[in-house]
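<instruction>
Derive structure tokens from the sequence
<data>
Labelled lines for chain and fold:
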Amino acid sequence: MANQHSQTGGSSASTLIDATIEAFDQGQAASPQEGLSLITDWFSSLKSDHEASKMIQPLQELQSELQSGSPSNQKLHDLLLNLADQTETLGQHAAGDLPSRLGTLGTALRNFAGQLSTTV
């Protein structure tokens, strides 16, 4: 499933948001490889949007943690909550159906972070 997320074209934001929500809503931890694939897709999507580019640093931290070989649940929890905050803030300035989708993504990030905190 790790390579199913590659996106192309300008309308990929909604598809990428949906793919990320789906990964977090599976009820179990996505594999680190799947997470890394999603992060790579997010880097590609975010680099062209000045406002959204603020999310690149926490995504880089998340990528490093996942690549470490033994990611800390506490660190992942904290990074996911940070990303949830930024996602919800970004949604306040988005147009069309993106505010709703970004709000749902923020909730999915928070829910997944909550699952990690119970295993810390």
About this structure: The helical segments are 12-24, 32-46, 56-67, 73-91, 98-117. Residues 97 and 109 are 19 Å apart (CA to CA).
